[in-house]
Every structure is written in C-alpha cells, then in structure tokens.
Amino acid sequence: MAAHPTPESTPESTLERDDLPVGPLPLFRRWMEVATRDSRMDYPNAMTLSTVDPAGFPDARIVLLKDVDERGFVFYTNRESAKGRALTRDPRGSLTFYWDALARQVRIRGVCENVPDEESDEYFGSRPRGSRIGAWASHQSRELASRSELEGRVVEVQARYEDQPIPRPPHWGGILLRPLEVEFWQGRASRLHDRFVYRRVGGRDGLADLGMGAAAWTIHRLNP
Asked: How far is CA 96 from the centre of its chain?
C-alpha cells in the first residue's frame, strides 16, 4: 500500500506575500487548475461543506464544486436535504478543499443563497437522465424504510416522464456561497507551512456589492 504524500515527500512549493493577487479568485482558480490536471486525484472539485444544525452542532459532508466566479462558489443539491434545511435556518457555511497530492488546502467561510432559477434549470438539464430521475425519487436525508421503497419511486418517475423531458424539481437547485474569508494553506517541510487568509473588507455588509475578484480584501499571513 502506497504511503500518503506529506509535505516532506512532495516537491516543495511556497506562498509569498508579494506573489499573491489582490483578491482570492485568481489564486483559487490557479490551484484548482493544477489539481484538475493531476491524475492522482479523482475528484479535485470535492469539498467539505460544513453547516450548523438546530442544536448548534457542526455538520459536514462532501459536495462537488460546479462553478466558481466573481460571486463565489456554487454547488447543487436537494434544498430539502439536511444541508439545505440547515442553510435555510442559518445561511452561514464553510467549504474545505484538500488536495493531498499537492499538500494544499483551501478553507472558505461565507454566507449562502440560492442561485437564480434559470441557472439551476440550465445545470439540471445538463445532468444524465438517471440523475434527473434520482432528484425526483430521493427524499434526500429523510428516513427510508427500505431500498425497495426508493426503487419504487424511481420506477414511478420513469413512467411519469417516459419519452419526455424531465423538469427540475422545485426543491432542487444551486446554492452559492459568497465568501467572507478564503484561506490558502501550502504544506512545507517540518510543519512550517505557508498560510495566508483573505478577509473581505466590510464583512457581511459588503456581500451585495462586492465580487470575489474585487480588490476589497485584506491579506494576512498566519502561523502554521
């Protein structure tokens, strides 16, 4: 069994303050492009989404990044799922990317909102037919009596939309996380890592007016 890569076993990269762009978007895109080209990672766009449940406990799960632009980070889900209900109650959330082969991590904290319906419609229409059927059949995160119950609903949806387009369920769509903080972590030997965090000027009050690519960010180096 191959050993997991560590900062000591990977070619060392560095982060220097003078090399950082004024906003986090260009650096994130550059790191994502490198991760996507790396054959050692099957899902470079996998990210941990963390929310808070009604009792105040953190809750985390893996979702897939589907878009990133000046607004922030977009993923798609059943909005009646546990994560969807959590973000309806409290729109604050965080995302974590970890690319172990590159000894790199990105942590993002921000506020979530639904993407426009036309954007969700476009993405839903691009999904495989089986996935579109599943979006109707699965009552995501709800208790399920048996596998046969789920399979029965799949058969029902298949019959309902036989030989016709499958529309997007009203409870299914995109969620955009607008970042307030974006932290980049570059692993280095002896655990003396490079860490920089971008913090949005104005905090949450500036979300409506500022894009992720704007210059309204402060940059801070953190201890490893």
From this structure: 7
Q: Is 191 a catalytic residue?
A: yes
Average pLDDT for 104-124: 98
Query: pTM for the whole thing?
Result: 0.89
Amino acid letter, 150: L
CATH class given for the domain over 17-126+172-222: mainly beta
What local confidence, expressed as pLDDT, does residue 1 receive? 47
Which of 30, 89, 160, 191 is flagged as catalytic?
A: 191
For residue 217, the model assigns a pLDDT of 96
Residues 125, 168: Cα–Cα separation, whole Å: 8
CB 199 within 8 A of CB 184: no
**Those residues with Cβ within 8 angstroms of residue 207's Cβ, 6 or more apart along the chain or in another chain:** 110, 111, 178, 180, 200
162 φ, ψ (degrees, to nearest 5) = -60, 130
